[in-house]
Amino acid sequence: MNPTSIFNLESIHSSGVYPKRPLAIVRGQGARLWDADGREYIDCVGGQGSANLGHAHPAIVAALAEQAATLISCPAIFYNDRRAELLQRLVAVAPAGMQRAFLANSGAEAVEAAIKFARLSTGRSGIVAAMRGFHGRTLGALSATWERKYRGPFLPLVPGFSHIPYNKIAALDAAIGDDTAAVLLEPVQGEGGVRPAHPAFLDAARRLCSERGALLILDEVQTGFGRTGHMFACRHYGITPDLMAVAKSMAGGVPMGACLIHERLGEMRRMTHGSTFGGNPLACAAAIATLDVLASEDLPARAGRLGEILRRRLREIDSPLIREVRGLGLLIGIDLRLKVTPVLQALQERRVLALPAGSTVLRLLPPLVITESDLDDVVEAIAATLQDLG
């Protein structure tokens, strides 16, 4: 199908909620993408964080083909071999003590489950979240999300949510009260500008929640499964949450999410939550293969090493338009002194695809399998783009 046909069909029949770039992606391999005209791009969008293993990884392709020929659907009212294996494997790589998981289909669903489980477990209703935080677009997750442009059209949202400045311990201390069910935080704010948490802030969150009977929920939807240099970003900080939302790259690009549950919360009550497709055998098979690849190719350590190299090279760019380079592993934000949209457009012309993180932050989320040579090309493209725009 030619690009014009693709553009026209999607424009006529899609909902219209997505801002579209004039680009039709039709194929991927590793950290490369191709458009409908055959042009090749270096992928630093990474499926918005869902392509940690890159595109068309042979282990994921094989797992999907084998499972699709065996069993695709099996609701959780029945036991299933793939689901059982995944749950065992997932808790084995999770932070110590997280012994249960609710399997879902996305990050927003995982966050919704965490909010419900926190209220259910504590008998409280208050949720403290952070300014600039992003947790999803369903009504519960949106209530925890800060950005006005996402929230505004849907007010009033779910009651009981409040927001504090990120990395401000005094504000956090003041916000956690007798009716606080949970504090919900990202270890690195992705959509909010790629802002890593200060270690003292997350340490205080863990301590204050424990002292006051609230739960700590970490949203590792974007930071999980090797992205930051550890399997989960909380390992950088040496803390363990009570509930943890994961998704995106959990199944190598196949839709899947989970809410991990610490053993101190125990088993959730029957019929308090559910999902028709959550934990389906097809996604579980892909997730098992993903865990195998992350371990066999040591991708978390690779992300940590390449991330350090990439941040160093970005900081060496001699441009007055760069305010700051920050991030963890291969989750990187370049804070600019200009709007990011023309930068994204110019990079696309140079065959590099990237993301925004707010109006002035260029976000890079390359697959963890990207080569160092490709990263060199990305740095050169960014440097040339900023020179032109400057």
Molecular structure report:
It is a single chain. The protein is of the alpha/beta class and 390 residues long. It folds into two domains: 3-56 and 298-389, Alpha-Beta Complex (Aspartate Aminotransferase, domain 1), CATH 3.90.1150.10; 71-296, Aspartate Aminotransferase, domain 2 (3-Layer(aba) Sandwich), CATH 3.40.640. 38% of the residues lie in helices and 19% in strands. The protein is built from 14 helices and 17 strands. The protein has helices spanning 3-13, 46-49, 58-68, 81-93, 107-122, 139-144, 148-151, 169-175, 199-212, 234-237, 281-296, 299-315, 341-349, 372-389; strands at 25-29, 32-35, 40-43, 98-104, 126-130, 161-164, 180-185, 188-189, 195-196, 215-219, 243-246, 257-262, 322-328, 331-336, 352-353, 355-356, 361-364. The strands form four sheets. It has a seven-stranded mixed beta sheet with strand order 4-12-11-10-7-5-6, sandwiched between helices. Strands 1-2-3-15 form a four-stranded mixed beta sheet.
Descriptive keywords:
2 domains; 390 residues; 7-stranded mixed β-sheet; Aspartate Aminotransferase, domain 2; 4-stranded mixed β-sheet; 38% helix; alpha/beta; globular; Aspartate Aminotransferase, domain 1; 17 strands; 14 helices
Quick overview of this protein structure:
The protein is of the alpha/beta class and 390 residues long. It contains 14 helices and 17 strands.
Choose one word for the global shape: globular
Oligomer: single chain
Helicity range: 25-40%
Instruction: Report the sheet-strand fraction.
Output: 15-25%
CATH class of the largest domain: Alpha Beta
CATH architecture of the largest domain: 3-Layer(aba) Sandwich
